[in-house]
Amino acid sequence: MFGKKILVSGLLSLAVVSNLFGAKVTALKTTIAEESFQMQIVAEILKKMGHEVEISNDVDYEIAYQTLANNAKNDEVFFIASSWDPLHNSKIENVGKEKVTKFSEYVSNCAQGYLIDKKTAEKYNIKYINDLKDPKIAKLFDTNGNGKADLTGCNAGWGCEKVIEHQLDNYGLRDTVEHNQGQYSALIADTIANYKTDKPILYYTWTPYWVSGKLVPGKDTVFLQVTHSANPNTDSTKLPNGADYGFNINSQKIVANAGVNKHKDIAKLFDIVKLSVNDVSGQNMLMANGQNKEKDIKRHAKLWIENNEAKINAWIKEAKAAK
């Protein structure tokens, strides 16, 4: 009996120590540098709550989700701060929805779609990506002389590449449009250079991201719509106003291993923390203008936290109350 009391006492002591020093948390850093800001903000708030936070090396989305699933029953917390919903839903289903926990919107109203320069759109009355089925229209965006429109597309593994490939088939664009893939940052840099030399451009992009600060929709470029929804992630991409850009409006959400539910304060924070899409776009523009080192991104995150101190303190208070 005495031995059991010592054992119980020891376990309670360990629980107290664990509670005192906080949980061990690993933030999974994606290969998209422009998503680091979102991750750093969550990491810094967790530190303020007394948790021990480590940041991983860059990992592809597939590896990130598999890591969450592999640690489903782990007492430690692993999370990704920029899970795109619904774009990444199939990735989560592939590793097992029951092995991860998805929280509510962290960054809302993330748009994506196809754009062309406004000058060419107006001159040739191009309104739909489907218009590029016409070889004469497609040839306007040919940059390598093969007669096909060159679309600056989406990196393999991001999820958007599967939507684009699906739509090229569904809209009958295989013979007239070439989906250029590789390093998006390099491809879009070439696209912007072409725009500056007054050449027609065709590209895919998303928000929040810095590209729409360089090529401003409505001023420099225009979004192309689709004649009908054809997206493997959903039955309809039509917006309430009737417009259809072929892609859903996404949210970036925090997704963690199922073990996060053992830490009610962390789970609560993940569910209530919010970040404006405009704040992310603004930070991404700083990166595009040269402030793109890891130390720069950490500085941007800490500055955002300083400027939103009252809001963050309220989140921390609510999160700790859930413990």
Specify the CATH architecture of the largest domain: 3-Layer(aba) Sandwich
Number of alpha- plus pi-helical segments:
13
* Order of the strands making up the biggest sheet: 2-1-3-10-4
Structural classification: alpha/beta
How many structural domains? 2
Main pleated-sheet profile: 5 strands, mixed
Oligomer: single chain
Instruction: Give the low-confidence spans.
Output: 1-19
Helix content: 40-55%
Using the coordinates shown, work out and report the CATH topology of the largest domain.
D-Maltodextrin-Binding Protein, domain 2
Choose one word for the global shape: elongated
Q: How many beta-strand elements?
A: 10
CATH class placement of the largest domain: Alpha Beta
| Average pLDDT reading | 93
Gyration radius from CA atoms, angstroms: 23 Å
3D structure, described in words:
Helix 2 (36-48) crosses helix 12 (294-307) and helix 10 crosses helix 13 (309-321). The chain has 323 residues and is an alpha/beta fold. It has a five-stranded mixed sheet with strand order 2-1-3-10-4. It is 43% helix and 20% strand. The protein has helices at residues 2-21, 36-48, 61-70, 89-95, 118-124, 135-139, 160-170, 184-196, 211-214, 264-272, 277-288, 294-307, 309-321, and strands at residues 24-30, 52-59, 77-85, 100-110, 112-117, 149-152, 177-180, 202-206, 221-224, 250-257. It folds into two domains: 16-108 and 250-321, Periplasmic binding protein-like II (D-Maltodextrin-Binding Protein, domain 2); 112-224, D-Maltodextrin-Binding Protein, domain 2, CATH 3.40.190.100. Strand 6, helix 7 (160-170) and strand 7 form a beta-alpha-beta unit.
